[in-house]
Write a structure and sequence with these properties.
The complex is a heterodimer. By secondary structure, chain A is mostly helical. Chain A contains 21 helices and five strands. In chain A, the strands form two sheets. In chain A, strands 1-2 form a two-stranded antiparallel sheet. Chain A has a two-stranded antiparallel ribbon with strand order 3-4. In chain A, helix 1 crosses helix 8, helix 2 packs across helix 7 and helix 15 crosses helix 16. The chains are: A mainly alpha, B alpha/beta.
């Protein structure tokens, strides 16, 4: 675990933004298309809210694919069907009955609330489909993976070149000023040598240097040893390229929707596959322009759809027949946050009782494409928080008496966790 | 995206250096053959490895090893695919179910984590009582070694479908030929199963159902049938008893299932009333240890005592014989008569005549304690039918046999006949959870599920129905008896539906099935009306028969018993039970002959203590009615009747057991005719020494009376006595020329314990029967490792909780003629504590020096009194262990718990050295994942029982009782989450919740409502070794005996 490739996020971001900037400069602005954007947008909105749970444009879901439906059916028929398909069937419309039978008698909801304009908007959207985005930054960057994955040696060489350049400039300036008549200085090397000679001659300085050296060495040795087993930044590769940024960040799914046991249990719980399927039963592919950068690879739609297919494989879901096969395969996630067995940690104590936000320990997960360990998870780190955090106990009957007593004892308004006993060994080690 | 990311640490590793690879793959290298190398001067001199090379190797290997050690493992987290609704990962679920293995019956609550049962606790709502074996049965579920996994035909595996087809064909063949087939089961006590069996017999009329109990109460059932017309055992409610006379009945042990709860309920000191219990017995039993008065009598004398008691109670004159304790029996009869309907007589003699006489006495007393209506159904075995079956099998009269969870090839006295006979059967099937001797002797071997994997119902007592439900998916390819029989009957319904149907028609009477399943039991509101039965029992004839058998006794008399740990031996492969020390001898991993001191001296048997602190024992060859068992180790048992010996059944199993568990001697060959008493026994000393693994070798308090205090009921009830100055006197010291309590003098400042919770555990020595359930509960809750016999022997047991047993007896020294009796001395010094009186009496009157006194005490008398004292970390407020720890690994919590941070401990063992209670345990080895300790923590099945909330300790650290801090923390967290204060008596520890007699009470003394708060201030409360000033948080209640004084 110690050998984890600590992605230097800063460098990566710099390189990426540099590439982005360059590409942006040379790229053209988006070319336009002859589409009524307002209508398309309105239609899309309605489609997403009312139709998308059963229909897709290009693919059969619960109901048929709807792209180009206007070419197949008349506008009047469609309006009648959408507003109340049961009535249409009852009227004996052959096409309506045929469709109903084709989909095994599963009837579509009636939408009497839609106006004709609404239906037309939706149909417009099904006809024109998604607006083609300008093939801007994203696409091109994706097409030039080497731009994103700029080799590290290149950066080092550049940095070295800059340093050398500075040195040369400095030396030139010095020479120029000396030529101009400034007193000759011994230069960096000469000064160091003189210092060394001085130290060699003076016993006291010698001893002092040795002691200083030993202390510095000890400091670094201890520093290194104390980092053994501290895995801040640990970012293992997961079996599925799951992006927390897309789920918790872009789509604002609550952390505890998936990690539901965090409020009840000591473990936050890795969601079981059926929780994924709550949404992914209907979401079998990502939006066209989605891209995820993970572990120096950029994953585009084609890659990400394959990742979603992995959920289907695990859940035993046949996306073509839209049914469970029963042939399941549990997902073996790699655990990111590992506490040693001798430390007891309970999520519910912190989440439910303490009201601590997940991000306090786990960091900005909603911004992480690939989750890494944000906090050191060392005992010192735990204790620091326990020492500093004042406890908000209002409304919890359990604390009523003890808090009053402790506040009186310590002469404070709000007691810290440590004052409540949160620093005792046995509270976490048993 | 590739997922096999390679992490590397050293350049050598990248280069593919083989030494790093070797280091990683071979963490534990073979021993270096230094002797071979260094011993040979020539090779040493010609070796090409120079000193410098050697240093280089050392340097490199050290560096490589330390680098390899830095690499942490990549851990996987594998969630469910579809998570069951009622499971929240990390939160325990509890299910009410029933354990019924044919010997132990109990309503229990099962704690499951992520679908794995990890602990069994009594279902107190249902009146459930768990003993050590029931507690430990959760580990037997995970017995990957002994449990049957697949159906077998002979040696080859076979599918269930094929097995069904073949067996049904054979059954039909036998049916058509009308050749008898026997279904042999243990006591099932299951109404719905009875129906399934009845249907099976209806389909195959040639089948007969025979019930076989390895440890039999058949004679009692026969006697009860003769007296009351129904074949069952009477039930007893000892809480109603005023006087209990037990003649050899170990009713706090396994006699008829055990009655410790109602017994303890009848002996609550706080009520001021206690039953008066007289025990007449030969072996020292748990019941005898708790008795107010124990009369030592060998079995033949017990018979006369029983008849004499009958004569004295009823005033009749059945034929009998005088015994040396006739006066005491007469006194007992008077007490019984005085108690009238509150008196009860029970006897453990498995003899129909003896049982008849006991029933007759109870009838004469009109005893309310005995219940002849709502009877006890937990022993239904019929010895006559079993004996007939064995004879028939031998004679070839029976052609087919189906056994279920019985092991007659091991547990029959004439097992050889049986084993020989079944070879000639046309069909023999063993349906069993265990791959035991019987399962290996039959043609077909079918795996059955454990109780915790099965559906079922149990009626242990008439009118009280219990439900059994699965708490885990079956681990192996098993099918339970009922489903097997239904299948063979040709039914297409499974047992679960049958059970539900049976309950809704016959049991529930409109009540909710879900509620019954949730509760685990259902009490029928209507009990069948009492039928009048005209008994034609001739007590006189019974007495004649009894006397005849008792008169035939010559030589030694053997009293076979079931041990607290193993019972009938079903769970012999359970390491927790093997390691549970016997409550009285304190020996684990063994059975042995118990012998009185006098006999041992006469026959030359000894128990020398070796220099490692363990004891050895001689072997004896024992012959009973022509059956000889050689090399039975002998332990000298104080309180054993002279002329009698005891031997525990259930040991000596070999088939299917791990080598470590194959301990002890199989005593079943002595268990002829299901009789636990065998006369005409001859003993012969054999050569060799047996190594015992006893937990506590010293037998007495050795004069340290502050450890355990006893008083009589009369003293406790006497309001005029101030306990602080009489029977519960604290240790007094001189301070500032004043006499003050020793515990008041202190080196340390007092902690402020008034804030928050402050946990205390109260242990009532009066209610503690020494049953050991708490010890197993502690093992299960706290992942306490099993160390094995060798380690036990050298005192490296890991038990966090042990039950110390102390003998006490009056010192009589014949060299010194006493000038006055102890009573007279006591009368002269009314203000002294009991122990103090004894001590001064010994010193001043008997003129024994301290050394002599020690010797005298070390040499317990023929019939010592026994007291049990559960001993665990006392969680001292001023703990001696805490002050000596150089790394502050053990520290004190505000809630009163003495905390132990294992990861901080460096293993100096100073704390154990400084602990006056000897309750700290050092991990000499890694007991988990270590082939040297091949018990439950070394295999994937056994590890499933581990409690995930408690860490498994590693080598080199100290551990001890934590006062179940994980449980108190969980209770606190639950209250916090629900936003409420902790309820009254909500705090529990594993031991206190396992304790059926209510001896252990745990709680928060800062909550005035908790039961323990009052107990801490009780007049009986005392701290062990209080004068040391440790201020323990475990408080004991003085043991009270009812001396039957006015």
């Amino acid at each position: 675990m110690k050998s984890v490739n600590h992605h230097s996020r800063l460098t990566k971001t710099l390189v990426r933004s540099l590439a982005f900037f360059l590409v942006f400069l040379v790229s053209f602005s988006a070319f336009s298309q002859d589409v009524d954007e307002a209508r398309q947008k309105e239609g899309k909105k309605l489609f997403k809210s009312l139709c998308a749970s059963c229909h897709k444009l290009d693919k059969k879901l619960v109901g048929p694919a709807l792209a180009g439906i206007e070419d197949k059916r008349t506008n009047e028929w469609l309006k009648a069907w959408i507003k109340d398909n049961a009535a249409l069937r009852a009227s004996g419309d052959k096409d309506a009955i045929a469709i109903f039978e084709e989909y095994n008698g599963s009837s579509m909801n009636a939408f009497p609330q839609l106006t004709d304009q609404n239906v037309d908007d939706i149909l417009y959207y099904t006809t024109v489909g998604e607006l083609k985005k300008a093939p801007a930054a994203g696409a091109e960057v994706a097409g030039q993976p080497q731009g994103d994955q700029a080799p590290q040696w290149l950066i080092y060489i550049l940095a070295a070149a800059i340093v050398v350049a500075f040195l040369i400039i400095g030396s030139l300036l010095k020479t120029i000023s000396e030529l101009k008549g400034a007193p000759k200085t011994p230069g960096l090397m000469g000064q160091t040598a003189e210092l060394w000679e001085g130290i060699k001659r003076n016993t006291f300085l010698k001893v002092l240097t040795v002691i200083f050296g030993a202390l510095v060495a000890a400091y670094f040795l201890f520093g290194t040893l104390f980092k053994v087993g501290v895995d801040t930044g640990y970012q293992p590769i997961q079996p599925i390229a799951f992006s927390h940024k897309i789920h918790a960040g872009d789509n604002k799914i609550d952390c505890q929707y998936c990690h539901s046991s965090a409020k009840h249990s000591k473990t936050s719980g890795i969601p079981s596959v059926n929780v994924c399927m709550n949404c992914h039963k209907n979401i079998s592919e990502v939006a066209d322009d989605t891209k995820v950068v993970m572990d120096d690879h950029t994953l585009v739609k084609a890659d990400l759809d394959k990742e979603i297919a992995k959920i289907y494989e695990a859940a035993g879901w046949d996306p073509d027949k839209l049914e469970y096969t029963g042939n399941t395969k549990p997902i073996k996630w790699v655990r990111v946050h590992n506490l040693p067995d001798f430390a007891y940690f309970n999520h519910s104590q912190h989440v439910t009782v303490g009201g601590v936000a997940c991000q306090k320990c786990h960091g900005p997960v909603e911004e992480m494409e690939e989750v890494y360990q944000h906090s050191p998870l060392t005992m010192g780190w735990c204790i620091d928080c326990h020492k500093d955090t004042k406890v908000d106990l209002k409304g919890n009957e359990y604390y009523a008496k003890i808090h009053e007593d402790l506040a009186k004892k310590y002469g404070v308004e709000q007691v810290t966790i440590a004052q409540l006993g949160g620093k005792e060994c046995g509270k976490c080690h048993y | 995206m590739a997922s096999d990311k390679k992490y590397w640490q050293s350049v050598e590793e990248l280069k593919g250096s083989s030494i790093v690879e070797t280091l990683r793959n071979n963490e534990f290298v073979q021993d270096i053959p230094t002797d071979e190398f260094l011993g040979d001067k020539e090779t040493l001199e010609t070796s090409s490895t120079s000193r410098r090379d050697f240093l280089k190797y050392v340097g490199f290997t050290t560096a490589a090893a330390s680098l390899a050690a830095c690499e942490g493992p990549v851990r996987k987290s594998i969630p469910y695919v579809v998570q069951p609704n009622d499971i929240v990962v990390g939160v325990a679920d509890w299910y009410a179910t029933t354990i019924a293995d044919g010997f132990d019956f109990a309503n229990v609550l099962v704690k499951t984590r992520e679908g794995r049962p990890i602990q069994i606790m009594p279902n107190k709502e249902a009146g459930g009582v768990t003993n050590a074996r029931t507690q430990a049965s959760v580990l037997s579920l995970y017995d990957g070694k002994l449990r049957l996994r697949e159906p077998r035909k002979g040696e080859t595996e076979i599918s269930w479908a094929d097995a069904d087809k073949e067996i049904v064909a054979k059954l039909n063949e036998l049916k058509n030929a009308n050749e008898p087939v026997v279904l042999l089961t243990g006591t099932l006590a299951s109404p719905s199963t009875d129906k399934v069996i009845a249907d099976f017999i209806a389909a195959y009329p040639n089948v007969k159902h025979v019930v076989y109990d390895a440890i039999s109460e058949s004679a009692t059932a026969d006697a009860f049938e003769a007296m009351y017309g129904k074949r069952a055992l009477p039930d007893y409610d000892f809480s109603k008893a005023g006087v209990i006379a037990s003649i050899g009945a170990d009713f706090l042990g396994d006699w008829q299932g055990g009655y410790e709860k109602s017994y303890a309920d009848g002996r609550r000191v706080a009520t001021g009333k206690m039953s008066y219990h007289v025990q007449i017995e030969s072996n020292m039993s748990l019941t005898g240890a708790s008795a107010d008065k124990r009369i030592v009598a060998k079995p033949s004398e017990q018979i006369f005592a029983l008849i004499n008691l009958y004569n004295a109670v009823t005033g009749s004159s059945l034929p009998s014989k005088a015994t040396v304790f006739d006066a005491e029996v007469k006194q007992l009869a008077n007490d019984l008569k005085k108690a009238g309907s509150k008196g009860v007589v029970v006897t453990g003699l498995n003899d129909k005549n003896a049982q008849l006489i006991a029933l007759a006495i109870n009838k004469a007393l009109n005893s309310q304690v005995i219940d002849t209506q709502a009877v006890n159904l937990t022993r239904q075995g019929n010895d006559t039918e079993v004996a007939q079956l064995v004879a028939d099998i031998k004679a070839g009269k029976v052609k087919g046999l189906v056994t279920y969870n019985v092991n007659p090839v091991y547990s029959l006295a004439n097992a050889a006949d049986f084993a020989e006979g079944i070879k000639n059967l046309k069909l023999s099937v063993a349906l069993s959870t265990q791959n035991d001797a019987t399962a290996n002797a039959t043609q077909y071997t079918l795996p059955a599920p454990h109780n915790l994997e099965s559906w079922g119902d149990v009626m242990a007592k008439e009118g009280v129905y219990s439900l059994m439900q699965p708490t885990i998916q079956p681990l192996f390819n098993t099918r339970q008896l009922q489903d097997v029989l239904l299948k063979w009957t040709g039914s297409t319904v499974n047992y679960y539906d049958t059970l539900k149907e049976f309950w809704s028609t016959n049991v529930l009477g409109g009540a909710s099935w879900n509620q019954a399943l949730h509760d685990g039991f259902f009490k029928a509101t209507t009990i069948a009306e009492a039928t009048t039965f005209e008994s034609t029992v001739d007590v006189n004839a019974a007495a004649v028969g009894l006397v005849r058998s008792a008169n035939s006794a010559s030589g030694f008399e053997l009293n076979l018993y079931s041990s607290t740990a193993l019972g009938d031996g079903k769970q012999a492969n359970n390491p927790w039970l093997q390691e549970l020390p016997d409550p009285l001898t304190r020996a684990s991993w063994d059975n042995y002959l118990t012998m009185s001191m006098a006999d041992a001296k006469e026959l030359g048997f000894e128990n020398p203590v070796k220099d490692n602190g363990a004891i050895n024992g001689n072997y004896a060859n024992v012959t009973v009615n022509g059956v000889t068992i050689n090399k039975i180790p002998v332990i000298i048992q104080p309180g054993q009747a002279k002329g009698s010996i005891g031997l525990a059944l259930g040991y000596g199993r070999t088939q299917g057991l791990k080598p470590e568990m194959q301990v002890g001697i199989n005593a079943y060959p002595f268990y002829q005719n299901g009789n636990n008493v065998q006369f005409n026994v001859s003993i012969e000393k054999a050569s060799g020494w047996h190594k015992f693994a006893c937990m506590q070798v010293q037998s007495t308090l050795a004069g340290r009376h502050d450890i355990l205090k006893e008083a009589s009921l009369k003293e406790v009830n006497d309001k005029s006595l101030d306990p602080k100055h009489t029977w519960n006197k604290p240790f007094m010291v001189s301070y500032d020329h004043q006499e003050v309590e020793g515990s008041k003098i202190d080196l340390w400042d007092e902690h402020d314990r008034s804030l928050g919770h402050h946990f205390n555990l109260s242990i009532d020595l009066t209610s503690c029967t020494g049953c050991g359930a708490c010890v197993i509960a502690c093992h299960a809750e706290n992942n306490v490792p099993v160390v094995g016999k060798d380690e036990m022997r050298v005192g490296r047991d890991m038990a966090w909780l042990r039950i110390d047993r102390y003998y006490s007896s009056t010192v009589v020294d014949k060299q010194h003629e006493a000038t006055m009796t102890l009573e007279e001395f006591k009368a002269q010094n009314p203000n002294l504590a009991n122990q103090e009186v004894e001590r001064r009496y010994t010193e001043k009157v008997l003129e024994l020096s301290k050394g002599d006194l020690f010797d005298a005490l070390e040499n317990p008398a023929e019939n010592p009194q026994v007291a049990f004292q559960p001993m665990m970390c006392q969680h001292c407020n001023h703990a001696p262990c805490e002050t000596v720890c150089p790394v502050a690994a053990t520290s004190h919590g505000r809630q009163g718990q003495n905390q132990m941070a294992y990861n901080r401990c460096v293993g100096t063992r100073y704390c154990a050295n400084n602990c006056p209670y000897r309750v700290r345990r050092f991990n000499w080895f890694n007991y988990a994942e270590n082939n040297e300790f091949d018990f439950n923590m070394n295999n994937e099945y056994g590890k499933m029982v581990l409690n995930p909330d408690v860490v498994v300790r590693s080598r080199g650290v100290m551990e001890k009782c934590s006062m179940c801090i994980q449980m108190t923390q969980a209770t606190i967290l639950k209250a916090k989450k629900e936003g409420r204060a902790v309820n009254k008596d909500e705090f529990e520890t594993a031991c206190s919740s396992a304790c059926s007699t209510g001896a252990m009470v745990f709680g928060d003394i800062n909550n005035s409502e908790d039961t323990v708060t009052a107990l801490k201030e009780d007049k009986r409360a005392f701290h062990v070794l209080d004068y040391i000033g440790t201020k323990p948080n475990v408080v004991y209640q003085v043991k009270v005996r009812n001396t039957n004084e006015a």
